[in-house]
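Sample pair:
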Amino acid sequence: MLKSMKRWWKYFTAKLNNSFDERADPKVQLEQAITEAQDQHRRLREQAANVIANQKQTEMRLNRQMTEYEKLTANTKQAVLMADEATKAGNTAKAGEYGTAAEAFANRLIGLEHEIEETKSLVLQSTQASEQAKAAVAQNSAALQQKLAERQKLLSQLDQAKMQEQMNTAMASIGETVGEDVPTFDEVRDKIETRYAKAKGMSELTGESVERRMLEVETASMNVEAQARLSEIRTQLGLAPSAEEGQKLLEQAAALQPEPGADGAATPAQPVAEPAPQAE
């Protein structure tokens, strides 16, 4: 019974996890992963700082021991010299006292030497641990920077995926019928194109009609008469028309000449006012 309950519980938990992963927003999950990576890096830096601090403390203790060792060495030498001087002076009592002091300094030196050796070993170990901690922090920092750089790329890919999904949905509905009461896009396009083609055809037929040509001839005739009147006014004012204006009048007159009829005869063209001579 207990075994069955455990199996059902594991199944239910796995099902909930799958349901959660399907409904969870990848953008939020990405930010959670980045935040967790930053917290891990912060904890690693704190641990590395403790290791480096231990190394620094061990080095300072070794420096103090070395200073004390130098001082004890000097005191031991001085006690030996003073004991030797007292012996030469025949002062046996002082010589014995100085000898005892020198022996005490020597014993302290021996004990301090052992402490220095142990401290040196600790310094070596703490230095190695410190270097490993620094390397771990540097490696984890590089990994964190890579994750931060990839975050923007993943967010961009997520946005592109959403837009592509929307585009796929829109493309899937393009070919579908809108409804019975609403025409489809293809039907409206065919209707507009048919109306446009018909209007273009009527425009071409209108452009080739006799009435349009007659209107063009009448307009050209009015333009020629206006140019002739302007030439007459310039002559009265003593202003001779320029050679360019005279050539323009000739070209307009030639354009007004009708094409030969059915019997091959041409209708005479209207007279064109020639340019007046230049006033002296």
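Helices lie at 2-23, 26-88, 92-174, 185-207, 210-236, 243-256.
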